[in-house]
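lol ok so funny story. i was supposed to be doing the assay writeup but got distracted and ended up predicting the structure for this chain instead. priorities right. anyway since i did it might as well share w the group, maybe its usefull for someone
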Amino acid sequence: MPQEFAIEAFPNPFNPLTTIDFALPQQTQAKVVIHNLAGQEVAVLQDGPLSAGVHRVQWNAADMASGTYFAVLKTPGTERITKLLLLK
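and the output, tada:
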């Protein structure tokens, strides 16, 4: 069981599909969103209650421009971020 909240992506850099793993040490409400460099939310990959453990979502960025994005794991009281690089 994970001991802390965490988020990571692979492959990274990617084109156009990346897998995002995130760890929850306890059952909680969890939201995984993608933000662009301007801070705008461009995708919601997960939004709802989840059990403790490691979870996986995929992001297909085929319709997005090349560049830097951020995958953000949000839970009540916690936020974790990982940088993503989309290369086309």
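Residues 19 and 58 are 4 Å apart (CA to CA). The longest strand covers residues 41-50.
back to the writeup now i swear
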